[in-house]
Structure formats: structure tokens, C-alpha cells
Amino acid sequence: MRALAFVCTLNPSPAPSSSHLLADQVMAELASLGVDGEVVRVADHDIRPGVQIDMGDGDAWPALREKVMEADILLLATPIWLGHPSSVCQRVLERLDAELSETDGQGRLLTYGKVAAAAVVGNEDGAHKVSSDLFQGLNDLGFSLAPGAVTYWVGEAMQGADYRDLDGPPEAVASTTRTLAVNATHLARLLNDGPYPAS
């Protein structure tokens, strides 16, 4: 089993990132279940706008797409910006749109059999809205969702606290993160053993 986390903070490395921290915590739980993984901060790469696999002119998406194709589990980690996923996260979804034209020999999307999950952070409410946006998009693109496919933390409204400023994950977040990892891994193994039929 292999997992890939796309961290969709607006800040390139090495800037601190609450989204990156929560993604690392999810990946640690997945690793404890025997899942290998990689974390990619999307803002470190030149991903061109568009809905093709390769937009040319130095587009970094094709190399990142290869990582998606090699993964059994895809995690999108995003901050909440103005009540929505970050623009970087939206760019990832837009580039994944090209997969709607890519099928195997039985007419199935290449993303069938891959499991998706989300990690959301912010200092305002909106985690449920953001995860629902991600879930609909990812499901349209052929990914499957296990129960409890999101872990999140939101601070008090109109305050400046960040997840990365906490001494550690609150118990509710840690428990939710563990459930996400367990269920995503379970579903990924089931789909690996029994792929979806052609339709």
C-alpha cells in the first residue's frame, strides 16, 4: 500500500504550515498500518492552470500525476480560505479533471480503486463545507471515500490561533485522524483485492 499527501497550503517550503502538520500526522497513522507514503507541498511546484495531463512549458503536474497513479490513497490537506479550499487545492482538482478522459482496457477511470481523504485546518468554521466540496469533486473524478474520510481542526472564530501553535493534537483530532487512516487503508486493501467491475 502506498499513500500520497498533497499539502495545499499557499506557502512554499520551508514556511510553517498547519496543513502540512496535519498531513504529516495522517501519514504517521498510515505508516503505523504498514502504508508507505510521501508528502508533497504543492506550492513548491510549478503547476500550470488547465485541465490537460500536460500543459507544457515546464508544467510540473505530469511528474506529480505519476505519483498519484502509483498511490492507493490520496490525501488532500488544505487550509480554509474565505470558507473554501485553498486555490492551490482547487488547482489540484482541476488538473485531476484530465483523468475523466483516461480509462483502462475495460473503460474504467484509472482512478477507480484509489481511495481519497481530506485534512482541513483553519481558524474559522467551514471544515464540513470544505470537505464536502472536496468529496464531491474527488468522487466525480473516480476516487472512493471510506467512512470518516476527513480529519480537521478549526480554531475559535475571529481569533489568530493556528493548529501548528498547539502543544499537540487535541484528543478528538487525534482519534479522528486514526479513524481516517484505519478506514482508508481498509478500503484501499479491499479495492486492491477486488477491483470495481466494468460498467
Structure explained in plain terms:
The chain is an alpha/beta fold and 199 residues long. It has one domain: 3-Layer(aba) Sandwich (Rossmann fold), CATH 3.40.50.360. It is 36% helix and 21% strand. The protein contains five helices and six strands; from the N terminus they run βαβαββαβαβα. Strands 1, 2, 3, 4, 5 and 6 form a six-stranded mixed beta sheet that branches. β5, α4 and β6 form a beta-alpha-beta unit. α1 crosses α5. It is globular, with a radius of gyration of 16 Å. The protein starts with a strand and ends in a 6-residue tail after the last helix. The relative contact order is 0.18. The mean pLDDT is 96.
Tell me the layout of helices and strands:
Blueprint: E1 2-7, H1 18-32, E2 36-41, H2 61-70, E3 73-81, E4 84-85, H3 87-96, E5 115-122, H4 127-140, E6 144-154, H5 171-193
Parallel strand pairs: 1-2, 1-3, 3-5, 5-6
Antiparallel strand pairs: 3-4
Helix pairs in contact: 1-5
